């Protein structure tokens, strides 16, 4: 084994044991959720929005923003508008659920500060 292989192995082995022992190797997926408009809405880090009408027992894909967009959070206002905040690279933007409940539109006055 040459020096380079030794150094690679020397860095990988301790990291593996650290992450395995600390439980960090199996971190849960961050998925913001909100209960609104008679459904549960869930977003993913790869830009997918799912809905459930049976308290989360089953999920239906509602919309795809694209794999480069991450859903960060949801909000529901007193006006029964459902909004979400998403991120693409370092830029965040807000979308609002359309009145027909099938698509997401760019929010003109973002709910999120």
Summarize the structure.
This protein has 113 residues and is α+β, with helices and mostly antiparallel strands. It contains 1 helix and 8 strands, in the order αββββββββ. It has 2 domains: 1-27, no CATH class; 31-106.
What structural category characterises the helix and strand content?
Answer: alpha+beta
Integer average pLDDT: 80
Helix count, DSSP H or I runs of 4 or more residues? 1
Biggest sheet statistics: 4 strands, antiparallel
Radius of gyration: 20 Å
Strand order of the largest sheet: 1-2-3-4
Order of helices and strands, N to C?
HEEEEEEEE
Give the strand content.
Answer: 35-45%
Give the overall shape, derived from the CA principal axes: globular
DSSP strand count: 8
What is the domain tally? 2
The poorly predicted ranges are: 6-28
Distance between the termini: 55 Å
Helical content class: 10-25%
Descriptive notes:
The chain has one helix and eight strands, in the order H-E-E-E-E-E-E-E-E. The radius of gyration is 20 Å and the shape is globular. By secondary structure, it is of the alpha+beta class. The strands form two sheets. It has a four-stranded antiparallel β-sheet, with no helix packed on it. The protein has two domains: about 1-25, no CATH class; about 30-105.
């Amino acid at each position: 084994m040459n020096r380079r292989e030794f150094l690679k192995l020397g860095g990988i082995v301790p990291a593996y044991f650290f992450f395995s022992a600390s439980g960090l190797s199996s971190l849960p997926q961050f998925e913001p959720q909100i209960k609104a408009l008679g459904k549960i809405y869930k977003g993913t880090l790869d830009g997918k929005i799912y809905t459930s009408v049976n308290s989360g027992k089953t999920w239906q894909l509602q919309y795809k923003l694209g794999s480069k967009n991450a859903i960060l959070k949801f909000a529901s206002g007193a006006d029964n508008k459902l909004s979400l905040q998403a991120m693409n690279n370092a830029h965040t933007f807000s979308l609002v659920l359309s009145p027909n409940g099938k698509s997401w539109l760019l929010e003109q006055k973002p709910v999120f500060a």
